[in-house]
Amino acid sequence: MSAGINSYKTDLREIFFTLFEQFGFEGVAGQAPFEAWGPEEAKAVLQETYRFAKEVLGPLNSTGDREGCRIENGTVITPKGFKDAWQKLYEAGFKTVGVSPEHGGQGSPMMLQVAVEEMLCGSNAAFNMYPGLSYGAAELIGECGTPEQQKKFVEKCLNGTWGGTMCLTEPHAGSDVGAAKTTARRNGDGTYSIRGTKIFISAGDHDLAENIIHLVLARVDGAPAGTKGLSLFIVPKLRVGADGSSGESNDVSLGSIEHKMGINGSATCVLNFGENDKCLGELVGGVEHIGMSQMFKMMNGARIAVGIQGLGLASAAYFNALDYAKERKQGGHFTKWKDPSSPRVPIIEHPDVRRMLLEMKAHVEGIRALIIKLAMHTDKAKQLSGRDDDQAAYHRGQVEVLTPLVKAYSSDQAFRLCAQAIQVYGGAGFCKDYPVEQYCRDSKIFSIYEGTNHIQAMDLVGRKLGQAGGAHFQQFMGDVGGFIEANREHKTFGTEVKVLAGAQEGLMSSAMVLLGWSQDPSKVSLIPLSANRFLQMMSEVAVGWLLLEAAVLAEKKMEALSASDPDRAFYEGKKWSALWYARNVLPTVEQSARLLVTEDASPMQIPDAAFAAPV
Fold first, then answer.
1. pLDDT for 91-103, tens place per residue?
2. Cα separation of 286 and 279, whole Å?
3. Which pLDDT score, from 0 to 100, does residue 172 have?
4. Which of 317, 340, 425, 479 is the Cys-Cys partner for 418 at CB 3.0 to 4.6 Å?
């Protein structure tokens, strides 16, 4: 793959199916607050996004990776082409598709927004970090800031004039955010003097925007220890004047940029605030000590965004591997493998390559369905709020329980599937001549940032299972159960639906086991030991359910088509994605349930010295 050549590809037909056929975009669009949107408008946006992804962002993916970022005169210089792409991105309006019209956006349903984001992330994950963080910062200020703060900061962060970040992590603390030492000293004019160091700040500095608005967690003098004592501050890189213009330095200095395994075109920074005691911040919303609850509004959106990143790269890796497998000829057909004179065949004809490709296809389609399902719940909650509060609460509850699944399962699978794409290529995939090795490197960070995947698992078992008295989880299980009862005797998928039923029973029994452990002090360590397993089990039940749901729908659609209709092959693909996943993944949920009840605590029982004694 030569520098500057696009490698990104996706299947718009598959995205259209998930959005319009499986999850009924028309049932959300056309109604307040999405009355300006319909299927044709959404399709036009997706087609134009795909063009932009291939023509603008895709060609910068490998070049940005190889060039990386550098520091000149205390400022990050991004890879060649990034600044032009930034301007084109905002001129075209791709980052404001889902933004409220009151902030200059187009007000689309989230269902469309996540599909747009999949293509932007999949074509260039490193570049999309910059506008992604800006969007998150603007969204938080728009929800939590004072009217004055919203007026001053939101629209400029959304239209690309300014960038944005979230600054949580500190060198000594890592994921232990409550150990933060950054301080905020009250000034007489309502501002605060900020002092401290933050690390691993994505898009922490760059040359794409005229200013960068940092959202910084800090502890006001006299505040209690831990997360309860943290407040959230708006800290611009350059001070913002009364007229909204960017002015002098705000004593925010760039310490360094990290040299990373992947997303090298994204500047991951060490930032020092107040080295000269001249860094000023303003309190988000004007209220102290609620910084973590405010930041979680951005974090939850960021966690969904990470799931979309995972999907984008896994999908891109799959389609590249698929094309390579169709073109690369190697070895004879497996029925004639002992015949040295048999002609070479494309490797897609080899059974193990077909197995890997179908595994990738099933996971990519299932994860996409899971993400758009979450977005649908978000849209419906927004529509029903104030009109049918019980239904709105149901949809909000499903967003709560699905968020850790989307973040963790998508990001875990992305790295694994990108590695599998390399395996399809063989030795060629390990080389930079092809894009899949970069996809693999870029995707590893997804399971680490925005809360490691173990944090997602603990959030699921420690908070989400018991939310609303357990109602959200029970409603999720009820939705799965409703599909099972309606399709248990399905002529094509009945056997696989029964496998889903067994997996659902294993998940429910495991939830009860976790509840029992939480009430027994002698077994409490088993919860963090088993949380990751439980999250994966629940994710597999969700994905298996949605793949089978899609397959049932696809079969109905196929019955109405002529034998020569090109859509028949597409719908046939939906059938085999579901069958493969139900036969090869869903049975492991019951096995995981059996493992969970063995109460293996060996990681806690092994003495530290028994791990190893290196010399």
1. 999 999 999 998 8
2. 18
3. 78
4. 317
* Tens-place pLDDT, residues 28-57: 999 999 999 999 999 999 999 999 999 999
Q: How far is CA 518 from CA 12, 213, 264, 285, in A?
A: 45, 41, 42, 36
- Contact criterion met (CB below 8 Å) for 262 and 442: yes
Is 171 in the same domain as 130?
Answer: no
Phi, psi of 230 (to 5 degrees): -90, 140
Q: With 60 as the cut, is the pLDDT of residue 2 above it?
A: no
What lies within 8 Å, CB to CB, of 393 at 6+ separation is: 381, 468
Q: At what angle do helices 291-327 and 125-144 cross, to 10 degrees?
A: 150
Instruction: Give the DSSP per-residue string, 507-571.
Output: HHHHHHHHHHHHT-GGGTTHHHHHHHHHHHHHHHHHHHHHHHHHHHHHHHHHHTS-TT-THHHHH
- Choose, from 282, 365, 450, 549, the residue flagged as catalytic: 450
Same domain, 85 and 196: no
Q: What's the chain's average pLDDT?
A: 95
Pairing state between β 192-202 and 211-220: unpaired
| 309 within domain boundaries | no
**Active-site annotation holds for 489:** no
Contact 250, 186 (CB under 8 A): no
Q: How many domains does the chain have?
A: 3
Predicted pLDDT at 175: 67
Task: Give the range of the structural domain holding residue 170, as residue numbers without chain letter.
Answer: 163-294
CATH value at residue 93? 1.10.540.10
* Whether 117 contacts 57, CB under 8 Å: no
Please say whether the beta carbons of 105 and 36 come within 8 A.
Answer: no
